[in-house]
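Hey, can you fold this one?
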Amino acid sequence: MEIEDLLAAENVLADFRASSKKQTIQALSRKLADGLGLDPRTVFESLLERERLGSTGVGKGVAIPHARIEGLDRIVGLFARLASPIDFDSVDDQPVDIVFMLLAPVDAGADHLKALARISRLLRDENTLNKLRVTADAGALYAMLAQPTSNAA
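Sure. Predicted structure:
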């Protein structure tokens, strides 16, 4: 599974502005929901419910909020590079400036886990993270993220 299978170019945001974890999740979930014809409130609440189980701030300034959504027919993602780091209750207590949101169908099973693992592998790579942090153009960010596995991580 490649990032380009999960992520459309219009779902890559550079210099996204938000002041809190909740505001970030709400704004990004609204963007994804609107593009998919889903109820934004349902998506937001599903993401918050997952967040209550434990923060999706995975460390090194990265968060991967994710949820399973009723009525979704494929796994979809949204990438945002934040203009300013925010507190995300991350496992390493570091603020987050890279967010990759993932929504999956309720019955996605192993594919959801594979998608999370793929994103996690990509965003654990220090070189990739550094490049993502200094790139201000959404198109360039998408090009970096959509590289095949052999080149990206």
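The mean pLDDT is 92. Let me know if you want another pass with a different chain boundary.
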